[in-house]
Amino acid sequence: MKGVKILGFGHYCPENIVSNVDLEEIVETTDEWIIKRTGIKERRISTGEGTVDLAYKAALNALENSKCSKDDIDLIIVATTSPDKLMPSTACSIQGLLDCKNAAAFDISAACSGFVYSLIVASSLIKTTGKKKALVIGSEVLSKIVDWSDRSTCVLFGDGAGAAILEISENDDCIISTCFAADGNLGEKSLVAAELKINTPFISDNLEEKRYIEMKGGEVFKFAVSVLPEIVRELLEKSNEDINDIKFIVPHQANLRIIDEAARRLKINKEKFYVNVDRYGNTSAASIPIALSELFEKGLINKGDKIILAAFGGGLTWAGALIKF
Ligand code: ACO
Predict the structure, then answer these.
(1) Which residue out of 152, 190, 257 has the highest number of ligand 1 atoms within 8 Å of its CB and is therefore the one to mutate?
(2) 166: exposed, middle or buried (C-beta count within 10 Å: 0-12, 13-18, 19+)?
């Protein structure tokens, strides 16, 4: 039976730290409000680096941590909602920068669930197409599509990138169970960003472009607190695992209150959830791989440990994976 193993992770975030106090200068908000409602204390905001730049640096870090040569990579998938260009894809730009001559490359658009979606797609392709080593990246410069005059969204997001290297395994499969799904109707109503309009000589209306993230925060909050525990339950049931045998749950880092509420509903200790939203804010597709990279950097994951990834976001989308290292 063919499976996959994960060789390692890497991440990169812009150096520029923007604190809540810094945001008090930009919109009518307070450090106290942001911490109380979201748990976010600071975020990284690019001062020039694009989505490809962050993805490239995260990829180099993952290759180094995995002791893997770029020449062996034959599949590159980038999850992003904030690409620098619609074409070429971010993944193709990375393929070119790394000069991975044998790699197929494409992007996946599933917002904050994008990295977990990409992990599922990469592992399926490795098992079925003869591809042997995949570079999977989540990279976002959300600051490009944030409305910096809207206090209800601009305080939430940050920029960053995380990456993983997957390799074919002839015997074991470290990805024990997965789930992924979507609700497009709810997505249209609650969370939309950068809607491109048709402005051609063939129509008379001059349509105004919507560039920025527009979110009904309360709607997304309700969805998130219900779907996060569902993902965990579904993965445990599918793999016949007990929550007590899971070392960490790595949730999408959107809001500390969502994570706390999910822990309450699952009746588990909050400590089981890895949290870094206080330092990075919501980095969408990058949030889970940055958290995984940090967990490994801190030496908190050992061979045999089982963890759960649980993501939710625009689309609306959600996705999870139970992984044994
Ligand atoms: N500072 C001060 N006051 C604010 C701010 C701010 N930054 N933002 C909103 N407020 C005000 C509102 O105007 C409102 O004032 P009012 O009562 O006078 O009308 C009040 O605070 C309460 O606003 P709510 O929106 O009800 O606040 P809530 O407690 O719901 O928190 C939040 C808002 C943090 C956005 C929350 O709803 C949330 O986290 N939602 C989920 C977001 C999320 O998880 N997104 C993930 C997906 S993102 C993706 O996929 C790209």
Answers:
(1) 152
(2) buried
